Amino acid sequence: MKLLRSIASAASAVFRRPHLDREMDDELSSHIQHRADDLERTGMPRREAHRRARIEFGGYERYKVECHEATGGPTFETILHDLRFGLRMLRKSPGFTLTALVTLALGIGANAVVFSLLNALVLRPVNVPHPQNLVTLERGNDHSSTHSYPDYRDVRDRNRAFDGLIAYTIAPAGLNSTGTPEPIWLYEASGNYFDVLGVQPLLGRFFHASDEHGANSAPYIVLSYGYWQSHFQGDRGVVGRMVRLNNVAYTILGVAPAGFRGTERFFAPDLWVPMVNQPQIDGSSMLDSRGARGTWVTGRLKAGISTAQATADLNSVGAWLAKTYPVDDEGTAFSLARPGLLGDMLGGPVRGFVAALMLLAGLILLAACANLGSLFAAR
Question: How much is the pTM?
Answer without folding.
Answer: 0.66
